[in-house]
Design a protein that fits this description.
The complex is a heterodimer. By secondary structure, chain A is an alpha/beta fold. Chain A is built from 22 helices and 14 strands. Chain A is globular. Classes of the chains: A alpha/beta, B alpha+beta.
Chain lengths: 551, 238
């Protein structure tokens, strides 16, 4: 298909749109509160009230304010969009009636709420606006223009250069420079190369990637296709966890539709570029989010990590050079191509460019997904957008980075949210989970929770992670049950150091972070639980080592 | 193959390109503790005992899977490394039920030897005492999961030397387990060729030839009765 044909298709689609649009969030969060029934009722009510000529009910992706869902947005009625919150299936007559000026007691949302107003939406620009199951909607929002531009106007190196210029860093957590990674894969020798999208989001409280995949699947597919062109790959794999059935279904639909229009498959835009994407469904192991374990899983093997080097860019899937990026990283690509790397580099801080999507959850008034420019102070997110702790509570700490991250105490709320600042505080940017905790939270229990998570999710391959986390969990259990002594705390700290420095993959290397960061900022809470040592204050549990190693 | 020169523990050595740090260390008489490494099968870098310090990287790297490069400066022994190695062994002893005194491998066990050499005089962690069973369904061999350290040497020899593919790992974390076929009793395995390579590969007493365990020793109680009868009743026939 040529661009002209595509534009004609879009014009036809846009021309068929009606004056008033009822955007119904059909993302997993709202779906769990019967959004599908709400949409059906709205459609029936539009028919019943004779508004079919002017009103359409559109299925859309996540609008972000998940704590207030199910959400309905209304366009075309007034200059400003209208928003309905906490919608129930029985609210349909009142909502449709209100379009004709009728009374409506459904809670109206405020589209100018700081939760929305302070956002900067690049990755989630289409979330809550386009129908994720209709490619025409994505095309009408400017979709696949970037891919066309890349295929017809740009050299391979030019694409990599643009991404490098943008300063984009991997959104999976570690923050490796995306342009550098693409450049390495592009330069690696090999007739066959692969592009892999990591959608194995598994941090407790994190749902950014799920939302992107459910709300705007084509954005990720287009990003992958551009990446494939830039590095010289013709096959992609989308690795999505099985716990995201809606995301998988929508991706399948999206791939099918893109293939029908010749935007995936052979000879894309009638160029010599071929790119196919297959979905691989995870089997419930957190560790498969680690890139080498993920690749083993894609190959059909047991999902366990292997030592790096060699890095996937050199030897990945079936030994071929492989580019592996996170969902959100790919979702940034089209905007960078459309608007230029320099534009993107103008957002954020010196070392952290662009925006980041966070799942704001926990003890906070406004729960949901936000996309903010890098460098925004944590306080703005938590207090202004999040509205602070619910009545009676005070914010004590903010957890970022899930089981690999740490707890940032309230005293550091003015920290700018960027890779370096969070690392300096003993936490990490991570994939975007942000769990707010109030003063009723016991930090030792939190550390124990995350340690239990890591222990259960350890693949069992390397000894420090497999049994070190088990011992750390045991020690934390002892301490929280008021059976631990100062010696146990010393052992715990020693294990934190050992597991961090000797584990094979990122899961083990970062597993001690929640413990280390709570020990750093909330040590008194640990010490308050300790019991006097029945053996007295002698040996502190430090290790005696042999004089020489003679195996 | 081009030769590379590098420095191990302050000593300048040369080695062939493509060699691993472990190969070069052993070729030059530098002793490095290992558990999951086995000559003849590929390395997985799982036991973390052969971790070494390499100048220029902050991360400790496993000698068995790290390829050498020109000018590499490697430190294989330091207080920090010794401490980590000893802790690793301690963690293993606390993890499952390693009771040397009643183990078939007592005296010729790699785990036990490492514990001695790394100066592990006691285990500072609480023993977990998990409940693991012993699979004695096979005609010739037994598998005692209490002694298993999950080094996967058996799995690798089974797949890559024998080519039978009987052994595998199931589960995850501390509940990982070496299984036969689709987690069946070993004796029911249709793929096992009874070659015994897994038993040869096992560093501990987890895999053993039947008839060699301490628990299977015959006490010959009948002989006592025979002696007593002979002495007191002058009765020489049973």
């Amino acid at each position: 298909m040529q661009l002209d044909d595509l534009n004609a298709l879009v014009a036809k689609h846009v021309g068929a749109r009606k004056k008033i649009v009822l955007r119904t969030c059909m993302s997993a969060g709202c779906m769990s509160s019967q959004a599908d029934v709400i949409k059906k009722n709205l459609e029936a009510e539009v028919k019943a009230q004779g508004l079919e000529a002017d009103v359409e009910v559109r299925r859309v992706g996540c609008m972000g304010f998940c704590g207030q869902g199910p959400l309905i947005g209304v366009d075309g009625l007034s200059a400003k969009e209208k928003l309905f919150e906490f919608v129930k299936p029985t609210d349909a007559p009142a909502i449709v009636g209100s379009l004709k000026g009728g009374a409506c007691d459904v809670q109206a949302g405020n589209p100018d709420h700081p939760f929305f107003a302070k956002q900067m939406r690049i990755v989630r620009a289409n979330g809550g606006i386009v129908d994720p199951e209709r490619i025409e909607d994505y095309l009408a929002a400017g979709g696949y223009q970037a891919l066309h531009q890349v295929l017809t106007e740009m050299q391979l190196a030019g694409v990599v250069e643009e991404i490098t210029k943008s300063g984009l860093r991997g959104r999976g957590g570690a923050g490796f420079l995306t342009g550098l990674k693409w450049g390495t894969v592009a330069k690696s020798a090999g007739a066959k190369k692969y592009v892999v999208c990591n959608g194995d989001e598994g941090d407790p409280g994190a749902f950014m990637d799920r939302s992107v995949l459910e709300s705007d699947p084509h954005l990720v597919l287009e990003g992958m296709a551009i990446a494939a062109y830039a590095v010289g790959a013709d096959q992609g794999f989308l690795y999505v966890r099985a716990e995201y059935p809606l995301a998988i279904a929508r991706l399948q639909t999206a791939i099918k539709q893109a293939k029908q229009l010749g935007l995936l498959g052979g000879g894309i835009f009638e160029s010599p570029f071929n790119f196919n994407v297959d979905i691989r469904i995870g089997a419930g192991a957190f560790v498969c989010g680690e890139e080498t374990a993920l690749m083993a899983s894609v190959e059909g093997k047991r999902g366990t990590p292997r030592p790096r080097p060699p890095f996937p860019a050199e030897s990945g899937l079936w030994g071929c050079p492989t580019l592996i990026n996170n969902v959100e990283t790919f979702a940034n690509i089209t905007a960078i191509i459309n608007r230029g790397g320099a534009w993107y580099a103008g957002i954020g801080t010196e070392k952290s460019k662009g925006t980041k999507v966070f799942a704001l959850t926990g003890k906070i008034r406004n729960n949901g997904l936000i996309e903010v420019p890098m460098g925004i102070p944590l306080r703005q997110i938590v207090e202004e957008m999040g509205g602070g702790a619910p009545a009676g509570g005070q914010i004590k700490s903010v957890q970022t980075g899930g089981p690999s991250g740490g707890c940032i105490p309230a005293a550091y709320l003015d920290t700018p949210v960027d890779y370096e600042s969070l690392t300096k505080l003993g936490s990490i940017m991570g994939s975007g989970g942000m769990v707010v905790m109030d003063d009723a939270t016991n930090m030792v229990e939190i550390a124990k929770f995350y340690m239990e998570f890591c222990m259960e999710e350890s693949c069992g391959k390397c000894i420090p992670c497999r049994t070190g986390t088990a011992q750390m969990f045991h020690l934390l259990e002892k301490i929280t049950q008021r059976r631990g002594t100062a010696r146990d705390l010393a052992k715990l700290e020693e294990l934190c150091d050992m597991v961090r420095h000797t584990s094979l993959c990122g899961l083990g290397q970062t597993a001690p972070n929640p413990v280390a960061s709570t020990l750093k900022f909330f040590r008194a809470e640990y010490e308050a639980l300790l019991q006097p040592d029945p053996h007295g204050p002698r040996a502190n549990g430090s290790v005696k080592t042999a004089e020489a190693v003679t195996p | 193959m081009a030769a590379k020169t590098l420095i191990i523990d302050g000593k300048e050595v040369s080695a062939e390109e493509g060699a691993t740090v472990l190969q070069v260390a052993r070729d030059n008489g530098v002793k490095l503790p290992t558990l999951c490494h086995l000559e003849g099968v590929y390395d997985v870098g799982a036991c973390r005992l052969c971790l070494v310090e390499i100048a220029g990287t902050t991360k400790l790297l496993p000698a068995c899977t790290t390829k050498i490069s020109e000018g590499m400066r490697i430190t294989t022994d330091s207080d920090r490394l010794r401490k980590y190695r000893r802790m690793t062994i301690e963690l293993l002893f606390a993890e499952r039920n390693h009771v040397c005194a009643v183990c078939v491998s007592n005296g010729h066990c790699e785990l036990q030897t490492l514990a001695y050499s790394l100066g592990m005089d006691h285990v500072r962690y609480d023993y977990i005492f998990p409940k693991w069973n012993v699979d004695l369904t096979h005609r010739m061999f037994g598998m005692d999961h209490n002694r298993c350290i999950l080094c996967t040497r058996c799995v690798r020899v089974c797949w890559h030397i024998e080519g039978a593919g009987t052994k595998n790992v199931a589960g995850r974390g501390a509940t990982s387990k070496i299984i036969s076929d689709l987690n069946q009793p070993w004796g029911d395995s249709e793929s096992c060729t009874e070659c015994g390579k897994c038993v040869m590969a096992c560093p501990t007493g987890a895999l053993f030839n039947k008839g060699t365990t301490t628990g299977e020793m015959e006490h010959d109680r009948d002989k006592l009765e025979f002696i007593v009868n002979a002495r007191e009743k002058q009765q020489w026939l049973p």
